[in-house]
Amino acid sequence: MNEQVLEKIKQAGVVGAGGAGFPTHVKLKCTPDTVIANCAECEPIIKSDKYLMEHNAEAIVDGMKAALECTGAKKGVLAVKYKNKKAVEELQKAIEGEEDVSLHLLDNYYPAGDEQQIIYEVTGRVVPVGEIPIKVGCVVLNAQTLFHISEAMQGNAVTSRMVTVAGAVKEPMTVQVPIGMPVSSLLELAGGITVPDYAVILGGPLMGRVAENTGKEYVTKTTNGVIVLPLDHPLVVKKTEDFNYQLKIAKSACCQCNYCTLICPRSNLGLGVQPHKIMQALTLNNADILADGQAALGCCNCGLCTYVGCNMGLAPSRFIGAVRQGLLAKKVKSHQEPKAVNQFRNESRVPSGRVILRMGLSPYDTGTRYIDSIQTPKNVRILLKQHIGAPCIPIVKEGDKVKKGQCIGQIPEDALGASVHAAIKGKVTAVTAEYIEITRGNYR
Ligand code: SF4
Ligand code: SF4
Prior knowledge:
Layout: H1 3-11, H2 24-27, E1 34-39, H3 48-71, E2 75-81, H4 85-94, E3 101-106, E4 109-110, H5 115-123, E5 138-142, H6 143-153, E6 160-167, E7 173-178, H7 183-189, E8 198-202, E9 209-210, E10 225-230, H8 234-240, H9 243-253, H10 259-263, H11 265-268, H12 275-283, H13 294-297, H14 304-309, H15 316-329, H16 345-348, E11 350-351, H17 352-358, E12 369-371, E13 379-383, E14 393-394, E15 401-402, E16 407-410, E17 420-421, E18 426-431, E19 435-440
Parallel strand pairs: 1-2, 1-5, 2-3, 6-10, 7-12
Antiparallel strand pairs: 4-11, 6-7, 8-9, 8-10, 13-19, 14-16, 15-18, 16-17, 18-19
Helix pairs in contact: 1-3, 1-6, 3-4, 3-6, 9-12, 12-15
One iron/sulfur cluster is lined by residues 264, 266, 273, 275, 299-305, 316-317, 320.
């Protein structure tokens, strides 16, 4: 392990930009044989990694080389969908002459970017439920994370990221924005919202969350998308409908056709996920059917069973998600070894186009304009917790003048976390338990 590289990544506050924000300097404290770049970007409409690859392929490859140096892994693989032709071309150019780094072309299916799927596609290995990729000798890093690692090698902290703003907005765009930018300002930048009643999804349409109050949302290191949909769009309804109401309907309507399990990508990898079993247990009010909970623990919350699988319009992913959370809270562990991968796994994969059609997203899948920089926003709010672990401790106070890239929040001693930095130059105008606000200014 190269401690110097790790320290630079830690100082820059790099976290997993494509998922829950696990601190990268902790993730890389291991000795894998393969580092995989997750460049799959499988959520519909989101194009942030696509443009990043098209315009910053060399930096992504530099990030990969730093990750290889850091961990001592012998092989770096950039896994990218073949359909992103320009990105493939740019990455291909960027790896020319690199003996340890190669490309792996993925088919266009959902969820190709699920860590489990991508590891299987690249190496043929399956991570047992409850374990992490290093168990099978792999580390997976998102394309944006690799870009941030390459910046960290040059002493630059994480102060911006690529975000797609799309859906019911006037000018859908993918844009490089400062961390902490108000989501409301991003929506204005995209020309405003085109429907009267709407919901804003932060992240991808399938796995993202519906914002409760858009006025109180800010771009974090993990915000890859801001998607606006009409309030009565089926996807929004599925995500926000009363849980108990959905449960009541499910109890009377689930016909145990099993299609949710047949389509489940984790089930097809032999990980024992069985959403129809969860539905059966709920319908019959019989927890014994779940036995030890193994039918739920391997779920990755991709939503495929709900949005594409169930012809009765039910939401098995919501129920299996709730059961899984309950099991994790009770610290129930998986004890199952993966079974054989379904020999028809390839045929069972769901093409992304079908997901878009089934979810009624075709009108919004129109592509987005790429913008590489914007005028600095008037203010930003840097959340103290935008990663897995403990919130940062502020090291600035109201009235302090800060430079872009200056560390303003540190990891508490001996805690898991990632530091945060000023995304713009200006004056600290608020420090609370949740955020540090910086107002733009040309202070010396
Ligand atoms: S939840 Fe839907 S897909 Fe799954 S078993 Fe019930 S009816 Fe079939
Ligand atoms: S959300 Fe549904 S389809 Fe996706 S992994 Fe979980 S059970 Fe399987």
